[in-house]
Design brief:
With 330 residues, the protein is mostly helical. The chain has two domains: 2-28 and 60-152; 169-323, no CATH class. It has helices at 2-27, 65-77, 81-116, 122-146, 154-166, 170-178, 191-210, 214-225, 236-240, 245-257, 259-262, 269-284. Helix 1 (2-27) packs parallel to helix 4 and helix 6 (170-178) packs across helix 7 (191-210). It starts with a helix and ends in a 46-residue tail after the last helix.
Length: 330
């Protein structure tokens, strides 16, 4: 009986975990033909040009994807970077929501099967009913937000993320540069696009950081250190950057001096990580090389560092971030 109850407790824990994953995904953010590798952008293409074209506002956020997908795709295919960003973000959100919802359903079914085989007290039965109700509510919410529309295949998602990033959309630049446009479970399908990404990630991240993306500035600084403090989850950006203590120093100095970082309390993990990174980069710098000045890092209002200080990882953007205008080109 103790073993059975332990199994039941484990199932309930899994169900709670799955529900939590779905809720996290909801806050965040079909087999296709083999993807064709997109040509990498010409050198400097991510940083030159004119004032961006003005497009009509995007559809209101939070609408069912089936109501806006066709419009977003049509606008994206005509060159609207914000529409490309929103389409990719909504598709990625829905992909994650469906995965979490299905896992919650499977866990609920397993829990019910276990409950049916053993005597349980009233409180346990109530917990099971609550989890069943939560799983059904999650399924209903996912169907309402994501149902009734053909999903983008992985290669299409990467295509739209890249399109928006190269056009200078800040949120898409972050998503693409750090490597979040890719998912491990889709890696073979998008392998040709990953080759292109490897050539472009550094320049996209650099442009976005100089324009004020503090998280990407920190990710660049940590990436140039070449360390593997958390090798199980190194973001793709860290994997494509070659160790460069001078560049690490330049970016880490800029990030450390940023008002949002300076305002963090003493002993904060972010401040400690940046200080340690600066010390390590200084040790790696050749003796005959002068300490570089801080990199250019625009200071934007309301910025709060959210990058993982262990490895430079950055979470997925929220689809609403796609409403931002693209950067002015220069």
């Amino acid at each position: 009986m103790k073993v059975a109850r332990a199994a039941l407790a484990g199932s309930l824990a899994l169900l709670l975990c799955a529900a939590g994953v779905w809720l996290w995904l909801s806050r965040e953010g079909a087999a296709g033909t083999a993807p064709v590798a997109e040509a990498p952008a010409p050198a400097g293409a991510a940083a030159v040009g004119e004032v961006p074209v003005r497009w009509a506002p995007l559809p209101a956020a939070g609408q069912p994807l089936r109501l806006v997908a066709a419009e977003l795709r049509a606008r994206a295919d005509r060159g609207d970077a914000r529409a490309a960003c929103r389409l990719a973000a909504e598709a990625m959100h829905c992909d994650g929501a469906w995965l979490a919802t299905r896992e919650a359903e499977r866990n609920a079914e397993r829990t019910l099967a276990q409950v049916a085989k053993m005597p349980v007290d009233a409180s346990t039965r109530e917990r099971v009913r609550e989890q069943q109700a939560a799983a059904k509510a999650n399924l209903a919410a996912t169907r309402a937000r994501c149902g009734g529309v053909d999903p983008l295949d992985p290669a299409e998602r990467v295509h739209y993320w890249r399109q928006a990033a190269l056009a200078g959309h800040p949120a898409a630049m972050r998503q693409y540069a750090v490597g979040n446009a890719f998912r491990w479970r889709d890696m073979v399908e998008v392998a040709p696009q990953l080759v292109v990404y490897r050539r472009e990630a550094e320049s996209v991240a650099t442009r976005a950081a100089r324009a004020g993306d503090l998280d990407l500035a920190i990710a660049l600084g940590l990436g140039y250190l070449g360390t593997r403090d958390d090798p199980s989850s190194r973001p793709f950006l860290a994997q494509v950057l070659r160790p460069d203590p001078a560049r690490a120093l330049a970016w880490l100095q800029a990030a450390r001096a940023h008002p949002a970082v300076a305002a963090l309390p003493a002993g904060h993990p972010m401040r400690e990580r940046l200080d340690a990174g600066l010390e390590k980069a200084a040790e790696q710098l050749p003796l005959d090389m002068p300490v570089p000045p801080p990199e250019t890092l625009s200071v934007l209002a309301g910025v709060v560092p959210r990058v993982d200080p262990r490895n430079g990882g950055i979470g997925d953007i929220d689809p609403t971030a796609c409403d931002a205008e693209v950067l002015r080109r220069h």
